[in-house]
Fold ATP-grasp domain-containing protein.
Amino acid sequence: MNPDPSLLVVPRVVLPQKRIRHITVIYNVVQNLNYGEKEDLLADEDTVSTAREIFTTLKESGFAVDLFELNEQTVGKIFELKTDLIFNLAYGIGSVTKTEAEVVKILEKSQLPFTGAGSRAIILTTDKVATKKKFIDNNIPTPKFQIFVSPEDQLEPQLKFPLIVKPKGEDCSLGIHNNSVVISKAGLGERLEYLIRTYREPLLVEEYIEGRELNITIIGNNSHAKVLPISEIIFGSSFKIEKKWKIVDFEAKWLKQSDSYKDTPGVCPADLDVIIEQKIKELVLKAYKKCGCRDYARIDVRLGTDNTPFFLEVNLNPGIGPTDGAIRSAKAAGYDYQSFLKEIVKTASARL
């Protein structure tokens, strides 16, 4: 008699994980900008310091580690690297703008193993509009929006003030200041004109969501992807006293001497209703997978006053310096800085 197929137990085949001994941390230095605001270079300075922190920490963990600065002169040398794994912190090729995906295409072509997302996912998520369309296609709530290519474009009637204006293809809060939130057509036109002139790209205009600002870090791949404790940005007294919009703008993210920076501490875990937290985590994992995220990422969510989570953007290869938000969540999950970096290495190497 043949056995019932439903009773057969098929043993899971576990492939041996490649042992990582030698890691090369790659990063880029932006020395000049062809567009944008002069303060934007602060975001790139942070990348360099993070690369050095990761180099030191991985070395203390027992790995052989190299630092590799990726620029216009060294890009061809990627193919000559002898390493077990590339820890990818390069957001472009030197000062060449809009080349983050090009870096990963080169890594893919070299067939060197590397941490973080593939080029298709980076192309998607560095475009805020394409990311929002992906959210909509997968029933993930996101604020209503419109693309503007000119200050003369007419506002669609379904969009209601207040609105927030952002460059379509920038990250790190570049081009976002407290006056990015507008409450009239005149204010909208003024902001559109300035940002199109400054960043030379289309703009995303979306409804401003009054509510709580949440950062969610995810680590892992496929069925092993897990959401770390949710972090919340707290907007302190200066936001009320100075009547500022509660957003993490450029000042709050990078200008350490500003009131906005000092008044936006992060707390983790966020105090959330269990049911709401579970709903957010389910949607986060869906967004992570549908956007092609890999190894680790951070997703930014605005929790509306009616407790609807509105997904804003997906950050691949997010900041993981010792004081960054992802590390705050990692610590709440029980990691220290060293063990979290080792977890990223382990997660990436499991794909090899």
